[in-house]
Amino acid sequence: MQKPKLGFWDIWNMSFGFLGIQFGFALQGSTMSRIFETLGANKDEIPLLWIAAPLAGLIVQPIIGYMSDNTWHKRLGRRRPFFLVGAVLSSIALLFMPYSSEVWIAAGLLLVLDASINISMEPFRALVADKLPESQRSYGFVVQTLIIGVGTWIASNLPKFMNNTLEISNEAAPGVVPDSVKVAFGVGAFVFMASILVTIFTTKEYSPEQMAAFDDADEHEEKKGMWATILSTYALMPTIMKKLGVVQFFSWFAFFAMWTLANPALTEHVYNAPKPDVKDFAQLDDNDEVLLDANQATLFLNQAAQDDYKTQDKAYNDASDDVGSKMGIYGLSSMIFALALTFYTAYNSINRKFVHMASLTLGAAGFLLMLYIPGQPDYLILSFTLIGIAWGSILSMPYAMLSSSVKASKMGLMMGVFNMFIVIPQIVAALSGVVFLSSLIGEESIHAMTIAGIFLLLSAVSNLLITNKNAITYQPSIDNE
């Protein structure tokens, strides 16, 4: 029994919640390192502070995948209960994040935020495969990528918009996150909740009986417990998943490097506006700690030192706003790429492997270009445009290739297990992987972006491992008779 094909707006509505999910991820990716630097973290410490994010994914994704495969609520269905729970928890974490007073508090909230986002995100990946026939799955994942691109672009521009358009200050006392960032995270929390509710209210899921009929499932298949099922899935993962895992490893290592270190690297190398160390301008005690007055305000050496700190800090905040805005371009270009791919794949077959390979190569060029543009931030438009093409492909092609080889009854679990190949490279990168490899090239922080470019090239070449014809060749989603 075949699933009926869905129209564009049905696919759009079922994927719309990803707008909110991407608001959470984009605010985190474009602003989290800025928050860590503001709270006093050294730039070399930032990747390790981010480790909570991939650790949350490693633990949460397969568990939520299994649970959503085996859940049925008579009103909310199979996946939508997880959308709702994740949205509530993520919105709360987004609201509190910019009010962190210590680095460890921000790192803890990042763990909560990422765990919560994963509760919503993995069932969303599985929903595309649940609802769409094989012929429409690439189409569905590309539409999802289109919405992700919109969310990335808008959310990354929010702090700059708050400052430049709404005139909400991007300046603050040492160790305090600016109001423009606080308001941006508040908007992100609202959009997260609202967009998830759109999907919940507009999308109806197939019942377990209908899914079994579509999947031609073996009704006598042995049922195992959650941990036994997850462990057996890891042990028996299909070959195509392992090969795609190599591609994913290099891709996600590169993007983790960007999310964690693009702000310190680009504010320093391209804008010549690194985060000033308040200790260079303030009075210090015998333990080399900044002295505070009765109101807990920093005691500067003198008025000139205070003015100099404020000038440099404003330059850093302005540069950070612009870095975030420029990073949003990768969301915009991924959106345009996804839109073009949506229209093309609606009527034509594509070679998924070569599309992904070419896209990753262009993204690598975008990262490598950054080394050669000190003092020329306008060139970042080109860099992030190319990176966005890679991002658009990363969010669609691997999932489309994988879904061709996975049973619908285990789609949520398989998507969760597959994301092991997303979180492990991020954990490796966080455990000094990026810092160590970039230090082999040079001490400048921009070399983290050079490493990202090299790893995307390795990811592109790794596509040559994929030989499964069913995964590689995509048939058009709309009959062209």
UniProtKB/TrEMBL annotation:
One of its GO terms (cellular component) is membrane. One of its GO terms (molecular function) is transmembrane transporter activity. The chain crosses the membrane at residues 7-27, 47-68, 80-97, 103-119, 139-156, 183-201, 244-262, 327-347, 354-373, 379-401, 413-440, 446-466. The keyword Ribosomal protein does not apply. InterPro entries: MFS, MFS_trans_sf. It is found in: Membrane. Its main location: membrane. It is a multi-pass membrane protein. Keywords: Membrane, Transmembrane, Transmembrane helix, Transport. This is MFS transporter. It comes from Nonlabens ponticola.
